Amino acid sequence: MTLELPDDLRREIVDHARSGAPEEVVGVLAGRRGDPSRVDRVYRATNAANCPEVRYEIEPTAELELLERIDGAGFDVVGFYHSHPHGPLEPSDTDARLAAWPDHSYVIVSLAAEPAIGSWRWRGDRFEAEPVRIG
């Protein structure tokens, strides 16, 4: 289980995280899901959480529109990304409690020091770290 992320899309995710700080940002990863999963497009979303400094949420109607756009473009939903502007690279307890897409990738961008990206597959009851292949 590996996530392939082209460098230009990695930069786009990091730029989104930086521009949204100090709030968390969120988006959807589209491409080909499997092993490895490959990200071919990044779709930014608006963070609709009540406390966007420490949580992320995509408003349901906006999420449905994004999912329809991804499907219409012929892609799979590979997963989601969000940022931790001041937090660790690892998923939080809240991230695990709110994860809803088993076997999809959850990418986190930490801005706590130098920007870093990590990815985890949600297994339905826990996150499992997965390598990110940039290229």
Instruction: Provide the structure class.
Output: alpha/beta
Mean pLDDT over the full residue set: 96
Q: Which percent band covers the strand fraction?
A: 35-45%
> Whole-number radius of gyration?
13 Å
CATH class term = Alpha Beta
Number of alpha- plus pi-helical segments: 3
In CATH, what is the homologous superfamily? Cytidine Deaminase, domain 2
Oligomer: single chain
What is the number of independent domains? 1
Strand order of the largest sheet: 7-6-5-4-2-3-1-8
| CATH architecture call | 3-Layer(aba) Sandwich
Number of strands: 8
Tell me roughly what share of residues is in helical segments.
10-25%
What is the distance, rounded to the nearest whole angstrom, between the alpha carbons of the first and last residues? 16 Å
Largest sheet: 8 strands, mixed
CATH topology: Cytidine Deaminase, domain 2
The outline comes out as globular
Low-confidence stretches: none
* H and E string: EHEEHEHEEEE
